[in-house]
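$ ./design --mode recover --in tokens.txt
reading tokens...
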């Protein structure tokens, strides 16, 4: 089956899908992106992802003339064309093509690329979903709340993790404060047994998985402390886990080669993993049911 990509108004074979060499995404990293999880052909937490995309575009003053509903229709088409049941959709929007000059061009039209690829179905077993992490210095810029395509520090961090045989690199900022993962948000059950994650600000990405989980916790009156914590608090935590579109809720059982607590998946992490998986499954069921009733009408 030929993979299909969408580029600026055209659906084309993935291997022929290209953008201009003076695209500002290529030249300057002047663009934003989203990764949306797909399960059984259904986008998970789509509203959160599309609203974060709109915010990222707004923060960089990239003006999209295409309405969001058209972009959503394109994403749905790309998923269908590629027959992706489980996997991810990728949306990238740059400021467009213009003669190379750092300042914003007057006439450029945003470049829109949408792809989709196959991936695993939701994990059933939290134990086999567990992974390890390493810590590295956070060398990123001051607007990490924007999901920009400038990912070089994240690339270097993930590579350091890979070379150490770990899944994720946890970024440590000034004063030894834990920021987030190279592609995930970091949570702990601290030494006092309190669920904790760093507050949102310009130094980390407001994760959609984090937002969805936070809502699930609020509905169940489970308290989360949104307070910064140190590298020592991380390594001394009772439990550590990550959230992200591909990590979902991922237990971290060792950091820098040293087990977290007894090195087993903790009870809080296990419960939150179950909560999030059930939340994703509910969305799949309700979308499939509404599609079915529409078709049956
Ligand atoms: C730096 C960073 N932090 C956090 C996340 C988690 O965000 P989400 O839950 O929306 O995938 C990501 C996802 O790619 C990321 O790149």
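writing sequence...
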């Amino acid at each position: 089956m030929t993979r299909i990509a969408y580029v600026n108004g055209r659906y084309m074979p993935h291997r022929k899908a290209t953008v201009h060499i003076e695209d500002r995404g290529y030249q300057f990293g002047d663009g934003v992106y989203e990764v949306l999880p797909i399960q059984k052909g259904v986008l998970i937490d789509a509203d959160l992802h599309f609203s974060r995309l709109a915010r990222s575009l707004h923060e960089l003053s990239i003006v999209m003339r295409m309405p969001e509903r058209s972009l959503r229709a394109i994403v749905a088409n790309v998923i269908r064309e590629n027959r992706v049941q489980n996997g991810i959709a990728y949306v990238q929007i740059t400021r467009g093509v213009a003669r190379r000059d750092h300042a914003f061009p007057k006439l450029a039209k945003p470049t829109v690329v949408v792809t989709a690829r196959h991936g695993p179905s939701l994990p059933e077993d939290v134990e086999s979903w567990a992974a390890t992490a390493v810590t590295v210095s956070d060398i990123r810029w001051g607007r990490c709340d924007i999901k920009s395509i400038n990912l070089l520090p994240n690339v270097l961090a993930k590579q350091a993790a890979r070379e150490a045989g770990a899944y994720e690199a946890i970024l440590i900022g000034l004063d030894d404060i834990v920021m987030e993962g190279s592609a995930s948000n970091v949570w702990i059950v601290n030494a006092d047994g309190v669920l904790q994650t760093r507050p949102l600000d310009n130094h980390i990405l407001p994760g959609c998985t984090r937002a969805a989980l936070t809502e699930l916790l609020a509905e169940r009156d489970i308290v989360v402390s949104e307070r910064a914590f140190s590298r020592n608090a991380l390594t001394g935590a009772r439990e550590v886990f990550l959230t992200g579109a591909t990590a979902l809720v991922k237990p971290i059982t060792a950091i820098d080669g040293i087990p977290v607590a007894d090195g087993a998946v903790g009870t809080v992490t296990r419960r939150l993993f179950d909560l999030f998986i059930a939340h994703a499954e509910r969305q799949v069921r309700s979308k499939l049911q509404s599609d079915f009733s529409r078709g049956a009408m």
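exit 0
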